[in-house]
Amino acid sequence: MQIIRTIVAIVLIVALLLFSFANWKPVEVNIWQGLVLETKIPALVLASFLLGLVPMWLLHRGTRWHLNRRIASLENAARTAAAALAPVAPVAPVDEPVATPHPPVSEPETPISESPLRP
């Protein structure tokens, strides 16, 4: 994925350089009635691009920072809650054998002599 990003960046830079060499002409930009800016076309295009890109990039970085902090906070809260709810299993002493409980044996309801399976 990094190679694709690098190739796209190189293609865009080459296109910008070709545009700059082909359009290196001075232009006048009327900002207000008495304020005129004389600049080259590539500088005007680059300034316009950055004027639109920088605020959106700053907004993206701020939102990403905020969401990363929120995710970290929620992960810490989940870890704390999981640690508080996890029961601690008692450990049997080494000297004593561990007894396994057996289910109680129930008495049959009908005597064996009266069982329907026996004649």
TrEMBL record:
Keywords: Membrane, Transmembrane, Transmembrane helix. The keyword Transmembrane helix applies. It comes from the Bacteria. Residues 94-119 are annotated as: Disordered. The chain crosses the membrane at residues 41-60. This is Lipopolysaccharide assembly protein A domain-containing protein. It comes from Croceibacterium xixiisoli.
